[in-house]
Amino acid sequence: MQKILVARPIFPDVIERLKQYFNVDWNDGDVLEADEFTRRLADCDGALTAGDPVGAAVLAAAPRLRVVSNMAVGYNNFDMNAFNAANVLGTNTPDVLNESTADFGWALMMATARRIAESEHWLRAGHWQKWAYDGFLGTDVYGATLGIVGMGRIGQALARRARGFNMRVIYHNRSRVAPAIEAELNAQYVSKEALLQQADHVVLVLPYTKESHHTIGAAELALMKPTATLTNIARGGIVDDAALVDALRAKRIAAAGLDVYEGEPKLNPALLTVPNVVLTPHIASATESTRRAMANLAADNLIAALGVGPQAGHPPNPINPEVLGKARA
Ligand code: GLV
């Protein structure tokens, strides 16, 4: 039987599915340190990860490894050049999380615009003595301009929600989406600068790459309206968190909503001292049904890539399909 490492705790019934095909080493505890992760992969044919870094050194130490299945749509934890050089397949879990993630992006944007977390903390702290005409004044969402950076599947799901809020939708993306999609979403392509200048609510949903590192830093925050909000449901590192703290403190923008952070699960401690930011612990896809769908899709990818099960040889979500069928290098 082939051997796999499941590097993170996941639904036990998904582990049972995997056990039908594989000898499973399951880490049902804390996140593995890099050296232990590498050691436990050494005699494995496949692995199921969720954000664990996999690069050339890890692959070199695991000569049998043929596939790493990431339980996430983002795979910035994979060094794809190293995967390609070693003929190791990477897979991810797109699509099944689009709507839950867009729902959450919407919720975080609204909580940010309407100061829901900040006012709740104030209420819980016992400060509420009287109604005030100017208590927690926020920024309107209905009828406002939504700026989406990254118009992939989740960006498009966000844009669809904007119709019900009568919003103008502008977007920026590496490449313009097809005219038919722009028409369906009533979304207008603009430069990043124009988006930052015009949007009342900026939402980030782009993948994290070397090129997208610090897409939003001090210069970009300076372009935004002082009444605008910034929501990041993409990846830490897309926003320069230190620059964001400065902008929030100086009220150069009204507020921010963050689900992801540079260096998470550690975060810039200054963020905890700023009232006009809503902070959530990377939970945008976290509904029971979506996380189950992601875990099962990650298992489907692993099972198929290792040549067993009903889709043997045809994993549904190969990131680098060109290595399929090639001998491990
Ligand atoms: C979560 O962050 C994902 O990439 O799926």
From TrEMBL:
<dbReference type="InterPro" id="IPR006140">
    <property type="entry name" value="D-isomer_DH_NAD-bd"/>
</dbReference>
<dbReference type="Pfam" id="PF02826">
    <property type="entry name" value="2-Hacid_dh_C"/>
</dbReference>
<feature type="domain" description="D-isomer specific 2-hydroxyacid dehydrogenase NAD-binding">
    <location>
        <begin position="107"/>
        <end position="284"/>
    </location>
</feature>
<feature type="domain" description="D-isomer specific 2-hydroxyacid dehydrogenase catalytic">
    <location>
        <begin position="4"/>
        <end position="308"/>
    </location>
</feature>
<dbReference type="GO" id="GO:0016618">
    <property type="term" value="F:hydroxypyruvate reductase [NAD(P)H] activity"/>
</dbReference>
<dbReference type="Pfam" id="PF00389">
    <property type="entry name" value="2-Hacid_dh"/>
</dbReference>
<dbReference type="InterPro" id="IPR036291">
    <property type="entry name" value="NAD(P)-bd_dom_sf"/>
</dbReference>
<feature type="region of interest" description="Disordered">
    <location>
        <begin position="309"/>
        <end position="329"/>
    </location>
</feature>
<dbReference type="InterPro" id="IPR050223">
    <property type="entry name" value="D-isomer_2-hydroxyacid_DH"/>
</dbReference>
<dbReference type="GO" id="GO:0051287">
    <property type="term" value="F:NAD binding"/>
</dbReference>
<dbReference type="InterPro" id="IPR006139">
    <property type="entry name" value="D-isomer_2_OHA_DH_cat_dom"/>
</dbReference>
<comment type="similarity">
    <text>Belongs to the D-isomer specific 2-hydroxyacid dehydrogenase family.</text>
</comment>
<protein>
    <submittedName>
        <fullName>D-glycerate dehydrogenase</fullName>
    </submittedName>
</protein>
<dbReference type="GO" id="GO:0005829">
    <property type="term" value="C:cytosol"/>
</dbReference>
<keyword id="KW-0560">Oxidoreductase</keyword>
<dbReference type="GO" id="GO:0030267">
    <property type="term" value="F:glyoxylate reductase (NADPH) activity"/>
</dbReference>
<dbReference type="InterPro" id="IPR029752">
    <property type="entry name" value="D-isomer_DH_CS1"/>
</dbReference>
